[in-house]
Amino acid sequence: MTDSAPLAVELRGITKRFPGVVANKDIELRVARGEVHAIVGENGAGKSTLMKTLYGMHRPDEGQILLDGREVVFKSPADAIAAGVGMVHQHFMLADNLTVLENVVLGAEKAHGIGAAARARIVEISDSYALGLEPDTLVEDLGVGDRQRVEIAKVLYRGATTLILDEPTAVLVPQEVDELFGNLAELKREGLTVIFISHKLDEVRKVADSITVIRRGTTVGTADPRTTTAKQLAELMVGAELPTPQTRASTVRDTPVLQLRGVTVAGQGTRPAVDGVTLTVREGEVLGIAGVEGNGQAELVDAIMGLRPLAAGTVVLGSDDISAWTTRARREGGIGFIPEDRHRQGMLLDAPLWENRVLGHQTEAPAAKGLFIDRKASIADTERIMREYDVRAPGPDTLAVALSGGNQQKLIVGREMSAHPRLLIAAHPTRGVDVGAQSVIWELLKDARAEGMGIVLVSADLDELIGLSDTLVVMLRGAVVATLDPGQVTPEQLGGHMTGAVTDTPAGAA
């Protein structure tokens, strides 16, 4: 590319305000045609808001958007798509009961119809960009990496020449990350432009041609991934060194806090979602559960929390068989819960923060006052959580929807830790949070472990699982297929067990 060639994307002085919050302030972004450009920054820095502005989901209050040197004004995502900008969201928007072809064509029937021409175009896209898609495969039969490729195909099918990827590696195992990076190389080779948001700085440095860093809603600099270390990037983002999940010396005690005996949960077909799982978590122990998403981890968590009935087996908390207890009774019995989907299971987005602090703890102090909610005490305790857990918001009356994902997560973690549970179920506790918030959450889990809390940790971040866990198990097709020593396993080996490529348990594993 010559210096005179127009930029694929240029954002000049972008400012976006919401009630009580300036999400973006005078943002500058320059992306060359045919490059992979990463945007990094802590939660609440304004990355997602900026990308939604580029995709037409928000109108900027100030500033200009230029594509290939021409100013554009987007009133909706349809305008952005028509201009060649597509976005793959972190949470996939696919219909499981439809085929790959039907998902790709849905909403874009006018482009190539729904028959032979559409099929030929999808095969052409798949071959051109090495996506490896089969048009007639049902999406429900696809793994996470393949689903992501379907989302990319959807965007390309609609004619996108600039792709925005939001946290594209958040749910992928190392092998799938490598495959995605291969796909990105193909996109780049064909002259397409990729902008992606990520919190994984080593991955950013591996795949990006250039990096823009955003802090507190404004651009603080650009970086060359070839000459910038992960530590330097972290410092640009949050003013601190990159944290590591490595845990301290063992704190595991002899007393069991959770025992699962032959736990089975029915699935949608003939195969159970959870198949005869037997596990023990002791006081002061972090039991890590690894597995490609969709292999029973979510259903196992639901079974422990009483959100799904058992088809067989028992759940024992301390010395109590709680298999028949309600979810509320389990919460009151000392189980804390950081859910996988904070919006669906962890928060009321249209309620203020103090009401969200009460959720799940409405029968306990400080929320409870006889049969009623103590509003004053709840507000005061929410202010304490905001201080101690660095939840950045104007105040406890702020609606939860106004917070970034990381700040929402810190509120949930603070709420659950404040109840001092004896067992914590932590499902993807740092998904979608920046290195600063990630470090805070890791330290909280380490401290709770040291004080004797038993923790079940489900995560797609393999470094996190290996670093925090005392014991590591792998789930595949609903069953525990390996028990590993976190001190002796690499992320690549763990990924091999998760995908079924490795079936033997290493010598010396628990």
UniProtKB/TrEMBL annotation:
Identify its membrane topology class: Peripheral membrane protein
Q: Which InterPro entries match?
A: AAA+_ATPase, ABC_carbohydrate_import_ATPase, ABC_transporter-like_ATP-bd, ABC_transporter-like_CS, P-loop_NTPase
Localisation per UniProt entry: Cell membrane
Q: What's in the keyword line of the UniProt record?
A: ATP-binding, Cell membrane, Membrane, Nucleotide-binding, Repeat, Translocase, Transport
Among SUPFAM superfamilies, the record links this protein to: P-loop containing nucleoside triphosphate hydrolases
Q: Which Gene3D superfamilies match?
A: P-loop containing nucleotide triphosphate hydrolases
Q: Which residues cross the membrane?
A: none
Q: Which GO terms describe its cellular component?
A: plasma membrane
The identity of this protein, by name, is Nucleoside ABC transporter ATP-binding protein
Database matches in SMART domains: AAA (SM00382)
GO molecular function annotations of the record? ATP binding; ATP hydrolysis activity
Q: Does the keyword DNA-binding apply?
A: no
What positions does the domain ABC transporter occupy? Answer: 9-241, 258-502
